[in-house]
User: Fold these one by one.
Assistant:
Number 1:
Amino acid sequence: MQSTQSHLFTPYLSHHFHCIQFDPDSFDALSFEQQNILLPASLDKAVAKRRAEFLAGRICAKTCLAQFGQGDFTLLNGSDRAPIWPANIVASITHTRGIAAAIATDDIAVKGLGIDIERDMKPKQEVELQRQILHPEEAEIFALFGEQVHCPLTVIFSAKESIFKALYSTVQKFFGFDAVKLAQFDDKKLIFTLMETLHKDLGKGQQVEVYYQCKDALVLTECEYIAQ
């Protein structure tokens, strides 16, 4: 599969980050073997597009892990489908059509990382999906945020995905979009409030920060969880 390193995004978080743009149409049966990356059995019958995106994410993860001398680590998924990272490594992967990225750190203070890349929703989706993604109390601040960015729902969706990824290793359970509510924003950062207690260290009312940036009809969000 053809891929090239992308410098489209410069992350705000100061951890090892790698992003690639890839051509899913160039994916073939040998692509995993050529990259020395294991194709999980769960993807044996997946469509080529899905396998290409998975491979792209794993290529990014492998590059990040190499920064810690773990480039040959076999990255498997657990029963919950979350990646099982090497001991003392905290990381996150994201991929969408044609682009993928990963971020990783060995900073012991960091308990969770989450990144997410999304392509801008169509205007119709920006309206129709609001009820599924927004907390009922987010309507007012969401309208204000919409005056600042052209794809506000895409950004909020991506941010909540990054929050889930960053907190999941601590929470160890699934939680919905309405578990957090946008409370504040500026031109690079969103601050969300937990609307329910997710864990003894993540109580209702606690705030979570997410960085965001929009470029070339794409959104990147980044979330870092540091336990108090």
Note: The first strand starts at residue 3 and ends at 5.
Number 2:
Amino acid sequence: MQQALSGIDFAPVLPLWLIAALAVLAVLALVPAVLRRARGAALRALTFALLLLALANPRLVEETRETRPDIALLVVDRSDSARIGSRAPQIEAARAGIEARAGKLPDLELRTVEVPEGGNQGTRLLTATERALADIPRARLAGIIALTDGQVHDVPATAPTEAPFHALLPGRPGETDRRLRVVEAPGFGIVGREVELRVAVEDLGVPNAAGAARLSIRRDGAPPRVESVPVGREHRIAIPIERGGPTVVELAAEARPGEVSELNNRAVVTITGVRDRLRVLLVSGEPHAGERTWRRLLKADPGVDLVHFTILRPPEKDDLTPLNELALIAFPVRELFQVKLREFDLVVFDRFANRGILPPAYLRNIADYVRGGGALLMSVGPEFGGPTSLANTPLGAVLPARPAAGPGQSAVAEGAFRPSVTALGARHPVTEGLSGANPDERQAARWGRWYRSLRVDQRGGAAVMDAADGAPLLLLDRVGEGRVALLLSDHIWLWSRGHDGGGPQAELLRRAAHWLMREPELEEEDLTARIEAGQLSIQRRSVEAGPPPEVTITAPDGSTQRRRLEAGQGGHAAARLPAEQPGVWQVSDGRRTAFAAAAAANPPEVADLRADPGRLSPLLAATGGAARWLGVAAEPALPELRRVGPGRDARGGDPQTGWIGLRRNGDHTVTGIAAMPLMPPWLALPLVLGLAVFAWRREGR
């Protein structure tokens, strides 16, 4: 509490308009006397003035004031870059020191606000500051002290306040940092081709940086290759895409001596391999009702280039028609099955019988094509059980079954049946989850009936669908590096016509074709990993029954942990766990290994890891604040806190360690007012009467 003289005010006895009217009358009464230069005119004017002053009732006002303490705001940066190395403990020690020193200053209240990690938007220090200022009257704000590394990404164009803004930075000036910047990286690449990455290695804080740096390039966990790249210039890297699905590329630049951190020396790029337009060769044999099923399916796929031949006239047929009258073209056997065979991703035989069209050498070429990584799909009918069956040719060596014809028994089974999914098929990606499929082997599928199938002796492969009495209907097999599918019925076209309720023929054939062409999503034994919203999502698919295994998870820093997957439907198993570290995560189940790329959670935050007041310089200059360095010792070198008056300098001393000032505003609240009249009636009346008598006597002489 303190008493203070605030000034003089008036409490008029009469309304102001009446006092003004009296003043006008007084002037009118004085004018003739002044013009005549009458004696006593001055005393008369003094009398009128004293009377008007008494009517105005002047008072001397004294206030009782309560001083309100000023408020200083301490802003503490808790972002990722402020936790690098020893910055976090140094900032925490500086916070405790500032709070202790501010507590010793009279009439000063210190409020602390912490700035959390800002997601992917960088450090939002000024946003948090403005929220805190909303509760502080500007008349009481002494200043703002920010404990930060200077990597602030929301500095406004104009200062949020006129109070001094000071920045205290961990470390010392002149820090350097090497960063690896990905200039351009494609998200997709064509399988079998190369994509180009553009990267740059930059040395921040180094004048005229030059020279070269070693860059390590690792693809899908393979041994790294090392290239020498120029510092400060873009460099192009060729990455081969060898398979479909994600390819994880990890880049790491060698550390620079004395740099702040190696956190931004690494970068991870994920490139999804996609196949170019797939080339499919479809060879149709004997015309039948479902001949166009395959053609419609493959032509409807925009990613497929289809080459289709239908054998309408076998070579042995001779009806004496002149050759110049035939509207047919010769079947280009040599071109298709020797010269250009390996240009096709898939070969489909639809009810094709070998009637001397393909010599054994070409059939052997097809078998070698499959073993070398090609794909073969055969949809067979009665011809498969006859003497012209492809099973009796060199191609039979790669087929998973042979016709089961015996003495007195045909390989062709006639009779209605409903196709169903086997227990293995319920876990296989080609047939798992098909609409209308039987949930287990004890129940029938909700599909239309077929009326013909082939009896076979299964020699290999996996039966994912069966016919009557459990006979295999769809066999899938791996031969060498290639794949084979054998559909033992030519009645799938009934589903496309909606017969007896129809069935998912388009989805089944599409899956079978894409499994043959190694679509990553249709691998029956697969392990995938990906990062979603800071979580590592692990998915495993297997056709093997039994509990899912444990997987070994390797974090980017090399630490490992084991996690048992949770079983799901259809051979699936999954797990999720936090993935906070940026870099490449590796997941292994003992047979397969998957990789997932975790980019930096806050890319702007790690773009420059130096402690630098440059971003805050406009704000410091606009408010008269200063940047001070805390040094590198465990005990920070705190600047002296001083109180300064409004308009005075708020900084001084050494540019790095000098004192910083907090404004003394002197804000207060009035708790009481005492008024003392300067012209009380007992004083005003004798004065007015005395002057009036004196003036009358003076004028009467």
Note: The chain is about 20% helix and 35% strand.
Number 3:
Amino acid sequence: MSEPAASLKGYLIRGLPIIKEGDDIPTLIQSLFEIEDGDVICLASTIVAKSEGRMRHLDDYQPSSHAIEAARDLGKDPRFVQAVFEESSDILIERPFLLTVTHFGHIGVNAGIDQSNVGDEMILLLPIDPCSSAQRLRQALGRDCAVIITDTCGRPFRNGVAGVAVGWSGIAALRDWRGELDIHGRALSITQEAIADEIAAAANLLMGEAGDLTPAVVFRGLKYPRSGDDLFRAKEKDIIRSRLNR
């Protein structure tokens, strides 16, 4: 079991240009900041998606009758709704908003499609497979480090959004405390800590939102497990999802 860090430092990587398709993010990062073994590099999903060519024009989508009907009820562009449908493997809630499951297992509003910081009539999709993207980026950095791809997501029963991990490599998404003893000597039987999400949330505090976005953060001094279970709960074990699908 990994011990908590004695001290943890977070560094903003300033000076990144506006990312476009084909840009080499690892090379850009290394030109601005020296990555060390053990670092955790957090990257906003937006820059990863842009580098991978995930920008789309709304005219790329031909709305189905289902999308047109849903768009009418939602007050949204039918082309946008069609994009959400195409980026989703399942629709959990269709009204008053679209809550969907992406093809890689993430659950979020509008399949995580972003309309901010892109041109008119443009949308930005999430990376096709963020964990594969994180692995590719980590290997290109050439260090024994971890990479987390972050996005912001709403939470059930709470207002506001928080940073979450949608992709990761070189780090376990969960720290398993089961079998460890509490302060009274009782063995823990349930606790699994979502450390990738916790790190993503901390990164989001540093990154900022809107026009102040700095889309890359490095954490140094964090001790973290290298292997563990997935963050995305299996459909058959997800009680809330089973109720939504009724």
Note: Helices lie at 25-32, 45-51, 65-74, 78-86, 130-141, 195-207, 239-244.
